[in-house]
Amino acid sequence: METNNDYTQDGTVDLRGQPVLAEKTGKWKACSFLVGYEAFERMAFYGIASNLVVYLTTQLHEDTVSSVRNVNNWSGSVWITPLLGACVADTCLGRFWTFTISSLIYVMGMVLLTMAVSIKFMKPSCENGVCNKATTSQIAFFYASLYIIAIGAGGTKPNISTFGADQFDDFNPQEKKLKVSFFNWWMFSTFAGALLATLGLVYIQENLSWGLGYGIPTVGLIFSLVIFYIGTPNYRHKVRKSQYPARDLFRVPIVAFANRKIDLPNDPSELHEFDMQYYFSTGKRQVHHTPAFRFLDKAAIKRDISTGSRPPCTVTQVEGAKLIMGMAMIWLVTLIPSTIWAQINTLFVKQGTTLDRHLGSRFQIPAASLGSFVTLTMLLSVPMYDRYFVPFMRKKTGNRRGITLLQRLGIGFLIQIVAIAIACAMEVRRMEVIKMHHINGPKEIVPMTIFCLLPQYVLLGVADVFNAIGLLEFFYDQSPEDMQSLGTTFFTSGIGLGNFLNSFLVTMVDKITGSNRGKSWIGNNINDSHLDYYYGFLLVMSTLNLGAFLWASNRYIYKRESTEVKDEFVELECKAIDLLP
User: What family does the entry list (predicted)?
Assistant: First the structure.
């Protein structure tokens, strides 16, 4: 006979809406069914993104700027559509069903893309390795397939990771400790999929068949979905506490503006808030008052509603709006780092195609395969970070994460600056070698090994261990309770807008520097351009952005929420303010 102690304390249920037993569901047992999908989905995405610029230039005959712009626009769409998927999950369907529908759309897009590069009449015809220009219908079918994938990704990306985090009970100390490592090992599975793509699939695409290179991850994706659904009895599902959680985001500033002429009480306890019994009976979490964005506190001023004034918001509702504003402030300073990350699949690849890529006398590695060193560095660094760095720093700081989330981001951003500085220095060296050997043609090979680009890839891999994982955990952890899917889209949309920003910068820099018959920094002939100037431009922007990040992080206030479990008061986040040193 099960007792209340045997069930999860956070109110999670099974697919039929029944309470679930803590011992038989959730935790890593459930997550083991999820990580397979994430690995294959990442393999599919990076199998496309890593080498897409090569396919566009060699098979569809697009110029450098157009191909970079189209890769960035597609990648940006893949990362920005999760905004819609998260809204659907948080307000209508829930994470499980939103993921289910979207994953089928994703698979359909992969099947169509595989057809676009495999079936004879759907792809450009080639003779002796030279491809004819694609027809309008072929181009339309190819890009339609890509953007169907982007739509599918919109529902899978924001929900699969948060659904995995839902498998750990915040009110169980042992499970909460396991959750600290969840995002590290979750990202480890994504890195494994990306490594397989950049090492294996890229080689298959360039040397065997583009159709086979896209077909393998398509089959893998279908297989991983079968595994995912086999694990359905083990999953925990969070119950939505409110029908329209985003409504408070609009209501709070409206009520605050209506009360703008009223003075705030000196004591925050005089603001409107439900008693603890309300939160205990509804299963919601109370968020404590913080001094950030004080003007929003006016939404919680108690007023006599019989006079026709608007009903006050609760402190918890006000703090939810404050959290979103604080997260938006941090989100803005992640756009430039996302622009740096976008170089891995675009200009870094074009740069690598001009260098000596031979291993021995016969074997030549694809330029995009160098991106595997970003992933390999992550795979090696994540276990070291989780098993050694976190326990060591935990003893020093007393923080259960070792360092705060914002400190983790700051370290990652600093390493990124070093990486782009090295990329700039290496491009300066490449240009010097070009001048020494009088190289002019776009297809002439510069007598430098492609492995001279290795340091910038490795450093970006180390940086991602800090900022990519840190951003995902930060936006999940700091989101209001009913908006965690939407909260994680801060992470994906930042990457998406970073890609769009890079597309915009590449286009504008090309137009400005190439006007009046000037030499474009990013021309079709990379050997007669000035990528070093563009990298220097990104270096300056990154340095200024780090200063903006330090300013924003020193003003960010972490959320403090609490609830009641088994007649005990539990505070889930004790830190009021965490500052970067």
Answer: Belongs to the major facilitator superfamily. Proton-dependent oligopeptide transporter (POT/PTR) (TC 2.A.17) family.
Nearest residue to 546 via CA among 558, 538, 557: 538
Q: Are 469 and 382 in contact (CB under 8 A)?
A: yes
- Tokens 């339309």 label which residue? 140
Alpha helices (runs of H) in 81-209, residue ranges in sequence order: 82-88, 94-118, 136-165, 173-196, 202-207
Q: Give me the helix-helix angle, 315-332 and 531-553, nearest 10°.
A: 160
The token pair at 392 is 């060591």
Q: Which amino acid is at 197?
A: A
DSSP conformational letter for 92: I
**Is the separation of the CB atoms in 362 and 67 below 8 Å?**
no
CATH number at residue 37: 1.20.1250.20
For residue 70, which amino acid is it?
Answer: N
- Work out whether the CA dihedral 398, 403, 405, 406 comes out positive or negative: positive
**pLDDT tens, 453-510?**
999 999 998 998 898 888 888 887 887 776 766 777 788 788 888 888 888 888 888 8
Instruction: Count the domains in the chain.
Output: 3
Residue 236 has φ and ψ, to the nearest 5°, of: -105, 140
Gyration radius of the chain over CA positions: 25
- List, in order, residues 6 or more apart from 56 with CB less than 8 Å away: 62, 66, 67, 70, 71
Q: How far is CA 528 from the centre of its chain?
A: 34
Q: Are 156 and 252 found together in one domain? A: no
* Model confidence pTM above 0.85: no
